[in-house]
Amino acid sequence: MTGDKAVGLVVIDLGQGREIKSGKRAGQISWTRQPSAHYECLVCGKHTDTVTGIAAVQKFISHISTTHRIACTATTTERNAS
Ligand SMILES: [Zn+2]
Fold this sequence. Notes:
This protein has helices spanning 54-71, 73-76, and strands at 8-13, 16-19, 29-33, 36-41, 51-52. The strands form two sheets. A three-stranded antiparallel β-sheet has the order 1-4-5, with helices on one face. It has a two-stranded antiparallel ribbon with strand order 2-3. It has one domain (8-77). It contains two helices and five strands. The mean pLDDT is 87. The protein is of the alpha+beta class and 82 residues long. Bound molecules: zinc ion. Zinc ion (ZN) binds next to loops.
């Protein structure tokens, strides 16, 4: 932790699927509902678009907090509020 207070939520839906037990795709997951994720900023209220798929979700959650903190409209327009 860096000491920053929480300013957003990464909302993750782990999806629904089952591991394939045999055949060419053994060990892979057969998804009936793909994992998905989006981010909700508690400062500016922005909800990002939802990303879908395990690779996209992993990539998304690895950077969204940092990315949004930079782009957050609440922090960039704060000085104009009165
Ligand atoms: Zn924000």
